Amino acid sequence: MDRRMRGQPRRGRARIGVAVGAVAVALSVLPAQEAGPAVARVAAVGADRAPNGATSAVLAAIPLGGLEVPDPLALDSGGRVTSVRQWERQRRPELLNAFQENVYGTTLPAPTGTTYRDAGGNGSAKKVTITVTGPQGRASFTLRIFTPSSGKPKGTFLLIDHRGSVGDDPSSGGYAPASKITGAGYALAALNAEEVAPDDAGSYRDGVINAFYPAGQDLPADAGRTISAWAWGASRAMDYLQTADAASTGIDPSKVAVIGHSRGGKAALWAGAQDPRFPVVISNNSGSTGAKLARRDSAGESISAINSQFPHWFPETYKRFDGNADALPVDQNELLALIAPGRVVVASAADDGNADPQGEFLSYLGAAPVYELYGLGNTGLSSTSWPPATGKSFRGPGMSYHLRSGGHGLEDADWDIYLGSNLFTR
């Protein structure tokens, strides 16, 4: 797992705050008619036995939207992170391990071999077959690339295409409008996630997973499933985008945003948390086990519901927290924080109740203390009251947020914001 980090330390010790405009405000976020108290540290609580075999970890918590959520800067050994060096060498590895052990499962190892084959296309459209080799065999999946007709791309959006809707024709994108993206001067690289790991409980192993685990044996309980495999596939796509062949299309690998919608957004966040080569990570309506706070389990889709309806997405170990989200030793604000100092982009939809847009908003705020270590704690928000204005882009130097009107979807209005926000600059 790559652990190359970037950024410069800057952090105060007394309070946890979020920069809103030029003002540091408390993390406690309540509806507009209620005033939130100043943030204070909550004393660590000793480990207690929780239902379903889960054990709550020793946590320091911060109040956030009427909840107590894990403080991303609280060390497992006690004490609190006060520098970028301490975050990168100590706390970040702790959190990555905790997310693997409790939420997303063990990530597939690096392949023992990788090949890239030009599978067709011409001009500004290109198709590449990526073949990876593991101890149990090989697996292949497709990456489709669309670039502007003239000039070098200003950046590349690497989409985890869980719908398989991006075809060879740039007009076929649906929720990923290649023509719109290239017309704005950017490139689109669409990873066929269905080929990486089919989104099906009976066949999800048939892509890359069976290249690493014996097909006739059950997976270990803590092994990553579909969402983890898609995130891993995004990193393999990034491997290709760093090659000379990709450079011949004008793509700059230092300007790649990994993006996913809904279940693809969960994978995009996990990819960006693990792989610091992505300077921008975009979650579009990712909801439960994505950007939404787990401790708002009763709002929108719950952990129990997602594990029941999609048993192939996450490892068996995650089911320990069905109906017991408070026992998780991590929460999704810490997942967003793992992207720092890269730009984290959280996009929600006002009527997307299943994804719990307020829970995504709170999680975004709860990641800001880590960004503040790098001097990037300004969230761009004009207020921490819920809800913010719809249809407006809020942009800080390392964090971006918007709330679109309407329901669940990756729509033109979202793309208008992504393409017009200069995401690759501070």
Q: Could you describe the 3D structure shown?
A:
The chain is an alpha/beta fold. 23% of the residues lie in helices and 20% in strands. It has 11 helices and 15 strands. The strands form 3 sheets. A 10-stranded mixed beta sheet has the order 6-7-8-10-9-11-12-13-15-14, with helices on both faces. A hairpin with a 6-residue loop joins strand 6 (113-118) and strand 7. The relative contact order is 0.16. Residues 1-58 have low confidence and may be disordered.
Bin the helical content: 10-25%
Secondary-structure element pattern, one letter each = EEEEEHEEEEHEHHHEHEHHEHHEEH
Query: How many individual helices?
Result: 11
Cα distance spanning the termini? 26 Å
Largest beta-sheet details: 10 strands, mixed
Q: Order of strands across the biggest sheet?
A: 6-7-8-10-9-11-12-13-15-14
Structural class: alpha/beta
The rounded Rg comes to 20 Å
Q: Low-confidence runs (pLDDT<50, min 5 residues)?
A: 1-58
Strand segment count: 15
Strand content: 15-25%
Could you report the average pLDDT, rounded to the nearest whole number? Answer: 88
Please tell me what the overall shape is: globular
